[in-house]
Amino acid sequence: DIQMTQSPSSLSASIGDTVTVTCQASQGIHNFLNWYQHKPGNAPKLLIFDASNLERGVPSRFSGSGSGTDFALTITNLQPEDVATYYCQQFGTLHLTFGGGTKVEL
Amino acid sequence: EVQLLESGGGLVQPGGSLRLSCAVSGFDFRNYWMHWVRQAPGKGLVWVAHISEDGTNTTYADSVKGHFAVSRDNARNTLYLQMNSVRVEDTAVYYCARDVRSSLDVWGPGTTVTVSS
User: Fold this and answer.
1) CA–CA distances in Å: residue A10 to residues A13, A60, B33, B92
2) What is the pLDDT of residue A32?
3) Taking CB atoms and an 8 Å cutoff, what residues of chain A touch B103?
4) What is the mean pLDDT of chain A?
5) Among residues A23, A10, A3, A11, which one has the least CA distance to residue A72?
6) For position B107, what pLDDT does the model report?
7) Any idea what DSSP says for residue A55?
8) What pLDDT digit, counting tens, does each position of B17-53 carry?
9) CA distance A97 to A25
10) How many Cβ atoms are within 10 Å of A19's Cβ, its own excluded?
11) d(CA B87, CA B104)
12) How far apart are CA B74 and CA B90, in angstroms?
């Protein structure tokens, strides 16, 4: 299976900051990568698909980049409602895999 | 409104069985691949299994292959996960999710499975 390594595992930031989460695949996956936001007690929410495409209804302060093995999720102008855990997920093979998650706190 | 709602979770003894259901509404269920994803206490999201639109193709994570089975009833708009020979490490919140171009665009709220004696 393709392994996804996310970093950092947690971070603390302030309102208005720009935050970047990275995800590295154990082998090249083109742009077959999605990003999710997960708040405790809630269902995970799709933010970015195909590495850089913003899901409908997601604020434009979220953006994704990368291809091959290295990817990033950037949150500009961090808001209180962005406190959550963020996961990358690859679909380069039929066995989907998620990164370990990045907990974003204020 | 597109909705997914899992049910069937609970407490089960090691070695026991449980069947989870995911009832869907608001979209044409028979046109979508579907997935199960789980989250153990204090851990991250882990993909479990997926099933094709007509149920003929299924794929499983190595950790559940041979003791979980995913199925669907398109007439009842329901996805299932049959969990057999459960282990303590199967304790988790189980989510069903809809697949659109291999992204999981809609998720249910989850159902909790606890494996304990």
Assistant:
1) 10, 22, 32, 22
2) 95
3) 34, 46, 49-50, 55, 89, 91
4) 96
5) A23
6) 97
7) P
8) 999 999 999 999 999 999 999 999 999 999 999 999 9
9) 10
10) 19
11) 27
12) 27
| pLDDT for the residue numbered A94 | 85
Give the residue carrying structure tokens 């291809």: A67
Q: Which is it for strands B103-107 and B45-51: parallel, antiparallel or unpaired?
A: unpaired
Comparing CA positions, the residue from B23, B29, B25, B26 lying closest to residue B6 is B23
Residue B109: C-alpha distances to residues A38, A51, B23, B112 (Å): 11, 25, 12, 10
Give Cα B104 distance to the centre of its chain: 13
Nearest C-alpha of chain A: how many angstroms from B113? 15
Distance from CA of A102 to the nearest CA of B (A): 9
pLDDT score of A92 more than 90: no
Q: Which of A94, A96, A98 sits opposite B44 (nearest CB)?
A: A98
d(CA A94, CA B88): 26
Alpha helix (H) ranges present in chain A? none
CB atoms within 10 A of CB A100: 17
Joined tokens for residue B117: 């004696």
